[in-house]
Design brief:
- The chain has a 7-stranded parallel β-sheet, with helices on both faces.
- It is globular.
- 46% of the residues are buried.
- It has 2 domains: 2-126 and 303-332, Rossmann fold; 130-301, Dihydrodipicolinate Reductase, domain 2.
- It is of the alpha/beta class and 348 residues long.
- It has helices at 11-22, 34-44, 56-63, 76-90, 101-108, 111-117, 130-142, 161-170, 211-219, 232-241, 245-248, 251-264, 270-275, 301-317, 328-332, and strands at residues 2-6, 26-31, 48-50, 68-71, 93-96, 120-122, 148-155, 175-179, 182-186, 192-197, 200-207, 223-229, 277-285, 291-299, 324-325, 344-347.
- 43% of the residues lie in helices and 25% in strands.
- Helix 1 packs across helix 14, helix 3 packs across helix 4 (76-90) and helix 7 (130-142) runs parallel beside helix 9.
Amino acid sequence: MKYLIYGAYGYTGRLIAYEALQRGHDIMLAGRDRQKIQELSKSLHRPGEVFSLDDHASLVRVLKKVDAVLHCAGPFSKTAAPMIKACLATGKHYVDITGEISVFEYVASWNEKAKAAGVVLMPGSGFDVVPTDCLALHLKNLMPDASRLEMGFQSNSGFSRGTALTMTENLSRGGAIRRNGKIVKVRNAYRTRQWEVKGKLLSFVSIPWGDVSTAYHSTGIPNIIIYNAMSPGMMRRLKNINWFTLLLRLGIIQYFMKRKIRKSVTGPDEQLRNAASTFIWGEVTNEKGDTIHAHLETPEGYKLTAQTAVEIMERICNGEVKPGFQTPASAFGSDFILRFENVKGFGS
């Protein structure tokens, strides 16, 4: 089966395209920048299409040539909706690499229509949220009556330009947790805690990570907080942002922040992708106060994203996933992450 990679010339899109070709997949490349698509198409010897997601007619025309879409062009809060609507209209499966809570909830709202159309909708097929989603379900299986889930991750890698731009947009929106089954907005750095990683006690701060949405759909656990390791200085800066959220929403401020990112951020190079790793911990608690811990260690996040996204596309195209909204763990089980090279887990 053939699938479309939209946003193929972006940092993560390129990694996914290379991985797909190494596995012998039949792919089509697409994006809105003609020169970048033509250059990538020529270098990879694959067909390319140029169109904006605002051009619904062109989008539908191209989707009729493929069986599924791997959507890599963020921020997905702006790009997911037109792509999903076109996929449902043409009966094509939809997969993306988002980590945005609002996007997961939006995609989930199309569940019934996707089932009726025979279409799989699976956002979050990369580091956001495959390993954490699998860890969450693993912990739920160990403690079926868990009422609270907390997870955190520590990475010695960096961010791509697209990730940094999305984070910049979200800074003014504050944090988010799940409380009693509902997603609740909280201030940035709402909660901090410490966790031992390879014998070293590190500080973690709560962040609005995608699992606030997906872990609930995968496990039904009603209270969820996700953390990221940060230095004390970074924590202070994140907390200070709470005083300037209104200012950060101004278009002129966003413009200059994004301009700086576009000039300075490129993403981890190949050497760092091959050398870096990510440590993920998880903890579930029930109403009696019983607690179970587990952890994972994975390859660098962008390297893992290329592998998991392409594997997910292969399985969907092979008909292994039921139509409708799915998370990676709900579709493939908690052990899905363990099939990838250099993943270590689940330890307690």
